[in-house]
Amino acid sequence: MDQHTLKREYRFRIEHWKAVRIMLLAYDMIAVNLSYFLALWFRFDCRFTQIPQEYWTAFLRFVLVYTGICLFVFWRTRLYQSIWRFAGYNELLRVLFATVITSSLHTIGITLCFVRMPVSYYIMGFLIQVILIIGIRFAYRFVLLIRSVSRKNLDEGGQHVMIIGAGAAGHMLIKDIAGSKRIRDKVCCIIDDDPNKWNHFIEGIPVVGGKDDILVNCEKYKISKIYFAIPSASAEEKREIFHICKETGCELKRLPGIYQIVNDEVTVSAMKDVSIEDLLGRETIRIEMDEVFDFIRGKRILVTGGGGSIGSELCRQIAAHQPEQLIIFDIYENNAYDIQLDLQKKYPNLDLQVRIGSVRDSRMLCSLFETYRPEVIYHAAAHKHVPLMEDSPCEAIKNNAAGTYKTAYAAMVYGCKRFVLISTDKAVNPTNIMGASKRLCEMVIQAFDRKIKEGKADEIPQLFTHEDNGFEKIPHPDPERAATEYVAVRFGNVLGSNGSVIPLFKKQIAEGGPVTVTHPDIIRYFMTIPEAVSLVLRAGTNAEGGEIFVLDMGSPVKIDTLARNLIKLSGFQPDVDIKIQYSGLRPGEKLYEEKLMAEEGLKRTENERIHIGCPIPFDADRFLKELGSLVDAAYENREDIRDMTVRIVPTYQLSMNLN
């Protein structure tokens, strides 16, 4: 559309609104005087001949004056500037206010200047004027509403909707659906567990019963969509209702949070798909974060693997609480670039540094620490994919064990105050090389912490896997000044993280199946990314050195049940629409994961969901020496790398690996 056409259309719109205002002006001129004429006429039994001449003369002589008063007051109260198709409570108040003012002036003016009229004339004139003035202005909106309802009743393209929740959120949602032109759906019924609301109506929609009536009413009203609108419901209440809803095969959505009611943002567009996290059946882990954010504020913080799922969430939470500087270190430039753009947009004043490199590169680490001197390190860089590491075991040792060692050593030499290792429950009695390599990482930070506390930091050997005559090695630390505190954080599978089973299941469902589950009895512990990051930050704040923090993640979940629930949430029936295939345990995989080795024991913290595993005694000197030999073997790509690992990690159950 060219500029000339736009100007012409804009000019037409202006002329259209002028015409509407002129017509409304003419209507008001008639309506205000017709109101009091009818009042006078009704007062005398609708017989014009019965009206006394003095009343009729007074009315006629006051007509022009009253018309001018009304138009002035209406204009000043902006009754000619509103868009009446969107008229609401504010417009209603302004019409009432204007009518009260003009009727009061009418009463005073005609009484003082002409004659005292009957009391019924004043009252009826006011009431009729209110009806006529409000009626014309709200009639357009009423007609549009009727047309919208009729269209939704007749439109075959729309779907039938059930609302769960007869409270404020449910009411807002119903109004949004009813008033929207682009939404063709029709709300047919409401579910609420409050018996006092049953058999009542909200905006003409019946409240048909509680959660036990969901299935029968979905069938009765041919429901295709279910909107959950109880943002204050507990996790257990949500889980119970969602488990019922997923049996219906309907599309299921929910409100993200209660804040939307406060902000008046309850709309269909704000609804989110019910995720598998909602079916886990436990409350979100709540951790007091004020102390954590006080610890972060004003510090130089390094996040290795900062572009990954856990690392990037760490960066987001840290960036939001005024660190002096945030350094992101990652080998994968695409992820690092994405988080860099995100943080630069949200926190333009943040001192953000992004560097690409590997934790296996001693020279790069030396340069990084020399330049930025980080005070706190969150070490999230690691290879985590179990089957891939089983095929490339030497890479697990190089990246996880050697990478952690080199990063921890640089932290000690360059005066870092706190080093937080992100570990996994797969490090407990590992049956795969990935888990064994993460157990090596835990042992590294425990050995470093022990040596520093004993004042023997200078006995920790340097670990280099290359020779370069032109490269000056990192100097040994001063044992009297070395004070880095090392801590590990151990948790289970993270929903939504890179490598999580959920994205794989969703992709398989989108492709029509089959969904592959390794074993019908395999179970796992799950947590969300925010929970994992909160725990990591909490551990970094309260560490005393050498601890392994463990999260109580509630009851484990069967992967088979997880897959079936996800299929149902997608609107399909397991083994009918989408097949489930059992592929067998993969190399290094076990049926269940453990959170803590039996010999570690548990120590409680202030948060009942967080525990500390007491360190398992081992010979630190021997371990550090053997680890150096293991890393050398990994860089030689030795075939017997697993056998060598078993000698260092006695809990590594090599016999359970499937080759």
Describe the structure in your own words.
Helices cover 47% and strands 14% of the residues. It has 20 helices and 22 strands. The strands form five sheets. A nine-stranded mixed beta sheet has the order 10-9-8-11-12-13-18-22-21, with helices on both faces. Strands 3-4-2-1-5-6-7 form a seven-stranded mixed beta sheet, sandwiched between helices. α14 packs across α19. The radius of gyration is 36 Å and the shape is elongated.
Essential attributes:
659 residues; alpha/beta; nine-stranded mixed beta sheet; 20 helices
Helix-strand blueprint:
Blueprint: H1 3-43, H2 53-76, H3 89-113, H4 119-154, E1 160-164, H5 168-179, E2 186-191, E3 201-202, E4 205-209, H6 214-220, E5 225-228, H7 235-245, E6 251-254, H8 259-262, E7 272-273, H9 290-296, E8 300-304, H10 309-319, E9 325-330, H11 333-346, E10 352-356, H12 362-372, E11 376-379, H13 386-391, H14 393-413, E12 418-424, H15 433-453, E13 485-491, E14 493-495, H16 501-510, E15 515-517, E16 523-524, E17 526-528, H17 529-542, E18 548-551, E19 557-558, H18 559-569, E20 580-582, E21 602-604, E22 610-613, H19 620-635, H20 641-648
Parallel strand pairs: 1-2, 1-5, 2-4, 5-6, 8-9, 8-11, 9-10, 11-12, 12-13, 13-18, 14-17, 15-20
Antiparallel strand pairs: 3-4, 6-7, 16-19, 18-22, 21-22
Global structural class: alpha/beta
> Overall 3D geometry?
elongated
Ranges where pLDDT stays below 50 over 5 or more residues in a row are 10-14, 257-265
- How much of the sequence is in beta strands? 5-15%
**Count of distinct strands:** 22
